[in-house]
Amino acid sequence: MDLSIPRLGEPRIASPFRKTARAGEWTGRFIPEGARLLLDLELPVPPSSDAAASPAALELAGPRESIFFDPSKLRVGIVTCGGLCPGINNVIRSLVLQLHHRYGVRRIVGFQYGFAGLAPSRRQPVVDLDPAVVREIHHDGGSLLGTSRGPQAPEVMVDTLERMGVGLLLAIGGDGTLRGLDAIHAEIARRGLKIAVVAVPKTIDNDIPLVDRSFGFDTAFSIAVQSIRAAHTEAQAHQNGIGLVRLMGRHTGYIAATATVAEPDVNCVLVPEVAFALDGDHGLLAWLRRRLESRGHAVIVVAEGAGQDLVGGEGADPSGNRRFGDVGALLKECIRTDLGACGIEHTLKYIDPSYQIRSVPANPNDALFCSFLARHAVHAGISGRTCVLVAMRHDRYVHLPIREAVLGRKTLDPAGDLWQAVLESTGQPPTWGNAQ
Amino acid sequence: MDLSIPRLGEPRIASPFRKTARAGEWTGRFIPEGARLLLDLELPVPPSSDAAASPAALELAGPRESIFFDPSKLRVGIVTCGGLCPGINNVIRSLVLQLHHRYGVRRIVGFQYGFAGLAPSRRQPVVDLDPAVVREIHHDGGSLLGTSRGPQAPEVMVDTLERMGVGLLLAIGGDGTLRGLDAIHAEIARRGLKIAVVAVPKTIDNDIPLVDRSFGFDTAFSIAVQSIRAAHTEAQAHQNGIGLVRLMGRHTGYIAATATVAEPDVNCVLVPEVAFALDGDHGLLAWLRRRLESRGHAVIVVAEGAGQDLVGGEGADPSGNRRFGDVGALLKECIRTDLGACGIEHTLKYIDPSYQIRSVPANPNDALFCSFLARHAVHAGISGRTCVLVAMRHDRYVHLPIREAVLGRKTLDPAGDLWQAVLESTGQPPTWGNAQ
Amino acid sequence: MDLSIPRLGEPRIASPFRKTARAGEWTGRFIPEGARLLLDLELPVPPSSDAAASPAALELAGPRESIFFDPSKLRVGIVTCGGLCPGINNVIRSLVLQLHHRYGVRRIVGFQYGFAGLAPSRRQPVVDLDPAVVREIHHDGGSLLGTSRGPQAPEVMVDTLERMGVGLLLAIGGDGTLRGLDAIHAEIARRGLKIAVVAVPKTIDNDIPLVDRSFGFDTAFSIAVQSIRAAHTEAQAHQNGIGLVRLMGRHTGYIAATATVAEPDVNCVLVPEVAFALDGDHGLLAWLRRRLESRGHAVIVVAEGAGQDLVGGEGADPSGNRRFGDVGALLKECIRTDLGACGIEHTLKYIDPSYQIRSVPANPNDALFCSFLARHAVHAGISGRTCVLVAMRHDRYVHLPIREAVLGRKTLDPAGDLWQAVLESTGQPPTWGNAQ
Amino acid sequence: MDLSIPRLGEPRIASPFRKTARAGEWTGRFIPEGARLLLDLELPVPPSSDAAASPAALELAGPRESIFFDPSKLRVGIVTCGGLCPGINNVIRSLVLQLHHRYGVRRIVGFQYGFAGLAPSRRQPVVDLDPAVVREIHHDGGSLLGTSRGPQAPEVMVDTLERMGVGLLLAIGGDGTLRGLDAIHAEIARRGLKIAVVAVPKTIDNDIPLVDRSFGFDTAFSIAVQSIRAAHTEAQAHQNGIGLVRLMGRHTGYIAATATVAEPDVNCVLVPEVAFALDGDHGLLAWLRRRLESRGHAVIVVAEGAGQDLVGGEGADPSGNRRFGDVGALLKECIRTDLGACGIEHTLKYIDPSYQIRSVPANPNDALFCSFLARHAVHAGISGRTCVLVAMRHDRYVHLPIREAVLGRKTLDPAGDLWQAVLESTGQPPTWGNAQ
Prior knowledge:
The structure is a homotetramer. By secondary structure, the first copy, chain A, is α/β, with parallel strands linked by helices. Chain A has two domains: about 15-40 and about 55-215 and about 360-405, Rossmann fold (3-Layer(aba) Sandwich); about 220-360 and about 415-425, Rossmann fold (3-Layer(aba) Sandwich). Chain A is about 35% helix and about 15% strand. Chain A has 14 helices and 16 strands. In chain A, the strands form three sheets. Chain A has a nine-stranded mixed sheet with strand order 2-4-16-15-10-9-6-7-8, sandwiched between helices. In chain A, helix 8 links the parallel strand 12 (about 270) and strand 13. In chain A, helix 2 crosses helix 12 (about 365-380), helix 4 packs across helix 5 (about 175-190) and helix 7 (about 255-260) packs across helix 14. The radius of gyration of chain A is 24 Å and the shape is elongated. The two termini of chain A are about 30 Å apart. Strand 3 of chain B pairs antiparallel with strand 2 of chain C, so a sheet runs across the interface.
């Protein structure tokens, strides 16, 4: 694993912080070049005699004493891509304020509606961004700049950056966006341009490798808790009442699992990481019949990517993401059919809060987090780093090479703390018979 | 219209309030028998010389100096029927506290899971209710007693009441429940029993005739506002973004209209009271294309009972309510097809918050309202009134005969203040071409 | 009581609604001149043979077919005065939208910081108001225009109106503001000017005579409920824990009483309308000792105007309102001293949420209410009515002459439903021994 | 620094998890004895050739394969001490569920009202705890067991533990509680008893050394944000409006600083870690006058422990904590006097939300956190560890010796990320002239 961060060149310009620092006004600290954080922080058991000469380590984020770009000449572009996620506007706001107030950058533009805004054929005008424009946007969900799914040709996008004189592109986006940025970076490198590309990764599912936490996730599972409460209330109020909640999580069950431990009224959580069978003595349907028999109601939470072997999703969306089959609809149908066939009267209420979760403003925890991510993204870009994302690891802010982040996905460890807490809280079986 | 209230007999027992009042402890006021409220309170224009000798009037609710039942001997049954609605637990709690603390009734039972709890074949045990059991239930949504849809045979239910010695049945339920109570009352009368039947009407749709407001409605439209905000955020964030929200309202658009005036980001509201056409120059789809052309996004709210001529719902649910076609799914499909055919790229997000709205606890406004409704229901029943519901009219609490309440439904007046406010707020056309 | 509304002159101009109505676009209804609502709607018991020939009645609010001002020439001024209250921005927004979109008024100015903005010596520039300026303000608490307490000389303010050519002054304010408007109206009349003065009354205490409900009150007591919960949690968590909450209510206990019935964890409510004694066997302190002895904790809510005979407030604020003594501080001190003297270890937590309540945005219920009040205020002013306020009575919108509204205050009826519900909910004594 | 954890003896009993694991039902992982986490995870710059042979490391929390206590014989006591904090009930609930369901402990008692419940003279009966008792308590703020401040004699408390046969005392409390537990542990050791003492540290101020985060902190600063919004609304609404918010934080400004970065409407934050002067050109009062002159309003947040050199607090509370002077009252008074002397009309609104913050239920983030802390506390105690607390460090759960945690306090680093973000957000001066 190569955790080094590409650089556009030597940083030779004194940070404007230093100037003010000299005057006694800046009381902060520069991060020295070379400062790194251990990737892995557990000591081996039993202790290993031959510690790695150079253990894997991540570059610490933060302001640098010498920077690459001259803020007075730099033009910065900001773009937001993919689905909505709480906190996008907080990130935009803090990017603009940091660029403007701390570094003195005066030329900041927003590309509208995702990568489409970088394709001249789409005729989306850019938006000038300054502190006045972004002052209040953190109280709103959504994205001031709009968003869209799907890539554009890297050549076209780099043409736009070049034509507009953008030296630093700050992008907020997920998996597909990171791949797009990687392609943009390759095209920039091919042309030998001095344009930096920095990402604030956005995935409400919290599934980026090496990244402990992504922005919006805290807000998302906190709001999901409300749906669980609603499902529990409906389930309890009916004889053989079933509350079925579909939550986000295409490749991982983090939101479903986290919300369940936070609000322990759930009796079963289905996630992509743990296969389940519908039929058979150890299948979900038999479990549900036993649960109704003994307790009279049940609350089931399902992550949207669970049980894809049973649903048969196919195709891909404009971002190139695989289309997912609708596991919520499948469960609803199978449960009704099964209980009907067994002559069990029941009431099933189905709740899908996805868009309500995606569109709320960031809660205070995420607001705080977004402001730090944005500040660190600016520091990273101004210093000449490129093809880099800023992230939290071990509760610290670090730089990650984009190419590592697109290599896979982080998933729930079924033997780990979180999933074990789910099993304790729900009392559900750890395995589901002959599920694949 | 006969607004008189049936009575089981002459109230000859002194209210226990009086006793304490004599001792100087009760500082309230009895409502004199005969106290009534004008049904209609506008003066005619031009003034009419021959005022009605006896204008239509509603009996005022409240404690009476003489009551019919001896609280020390009375057994009271409580039942909750139909779909969930914020405030049910508040009503149960206040019924029990008023019966126990103010009147000294010591035998209160809850029938579980709606009318099914009154049918011995269902083997639902009754629940003893006292202040300790209900102390904290007002903080939870749902119903402590559970609920179900659908009727049971009146003979069977009256058998149960007779066998258990219930003298007063307090029921919380909607349209179907009121019809069921009417049938129970008829059977009681046929047998010459002294059992009173009193309802606290429950309809989240606010559609009971003569009743200005039903409990849970304030909470419902307040929560619906959150879905409208989410839809607006999603719509604004995409090019040609469309937020489509389906809200409750089978026969009337009160929730949809009220939420829209409270949160004026909606561009079009569709309700059962105003027909709309999909096609044609003045149809919804053409309107939507023009809106996207001019503004780039749209928020549409649709009440579940709107456009039923277009959807073709059929059949009936266990309560005998007509099954409704899914107008939300229809709109989603038609919009996608139409815009696709016109080559208009768009993003549609569909939000259906129904069960989350139904299951939340009452907000403070409804909590207050529920506590008054419950107190008045107890006063009405203890005084020997029967086949009666308690309601708010002109901001006052009154008695209404159940037989009048089941004769029709209250609907939005398209020329009235509320709908006119919707038209002003949305800017939508008041009529939709050749809609029926 | 004279409930007639002053008029500037005959309304001879056709409402612009009519024009569009002719084209088939307006589907609303005009309120005929002369339409009135009965002030009192209970029928007498026993029935009175001689009904009043002309019972007291209030003019109905709403759009008129003929109006007084020519919207194309009219200049409108808006001003907000006194303390903050949830909903002020909603009213401002709806005033502007109604004036602009429905009547076509293009010249709307906001005077800043209350009546001070009408006094040229204060050099507060006016703000031009149009739909773009007010689009999002309803999501914020406070007042877009700012506010202040205290009057200015009517002559100076009318000079300003005359100089600026303002034909209609729309004011949002409370008691002192209404008196100020009355004085402005008198000065206008003295000069024979054609300037209308219309108020949307603002009192978070809900104490305007003849008015059933004032805007912001629903939000206020709903937020107050949170403080009661906090006080209850603190009280329960400690041996002899006492939670003491001071709520708004200088002349009346509506907020305290309403919040208590909505959140029944309160054990004692003190309001201006019911005197209480501290000492003696039937005084508050003895009651508290008994309560701690029997239950181990207590929650007390006190309206800021309660017990003023005990506190001895004096002087007046800039609006001419009497300064109030701090009854919360008094109670805190007396309780500590008394329990200390009795050797009762205890923990007292004091909560005063006033400014947090005043500054929140309107909840959906108040947002709805504010939008109707504002629309009706515009209809009233455009029609040439003056020295008038718009209000809710019997759940309908009506006009009230300002001179009647400043004659007294609405207070809680200790024998009425609300206070009786408080007594039931708290179990507190209805009287406090020898309190005055 | 000695980070080793005392043990009662060799763990020789097989964890009940293993048994079920063998049957294929437990899919979790045991933490091997000896597993540790690096205390410090930054790599030195420049790289150091001689890495420490044994770097400082913390024991990882989690279930052990061999445990010390026999769950079938163990009696566990739970106690909560000190001020309220969001999440106490979540911790109690998870302790009980983990003990009961996972380890099979059947004898769990709660001591009431803090350490006082361990002193027989106080005659507080203990409460039996099982899953039914704690099922719903996580939805409530406060503490099921009640709390109190102040110590009791260790001998008396250990007498009680011995007499009742308690083998494991689980305590939730802050600084004073940890010192009390240390004393209890010393007394236990002196007597040679096999009683383990485990703490879940509670400090809403987040000031425990070596601990990254304490429970309730996330909820606390999130609620504090609401007070900041209120203060901002009030300040903006008045000419020279000043919103002054006093937040918790006796020794550190974490809550004040964190809430400010999360809700950036604050113009000045005062914390214990950064001295400030009131007077002089670089003092707070001059700054405020300049701010009002240029912007017309100001929002100031002050941590309760700020400026203690100016206030002169004295004495100590029952827990032995120093009593603090009321810096909020001081500022209010000084600002009024200073602006009055300068002839600057202004409006100051003072908000102190402390008890409302302390008494709310945990938000979902803290609910999740509390459940993990509680599980790990049970694992630690059952394994025979003692005088230990469970904590989060580097986003992982670890054991910390109590004796290290009471040695000092964690405070804000004025050169660190958080305080620098405060300075950027507020624009306030980093230093205040000749402040000490």
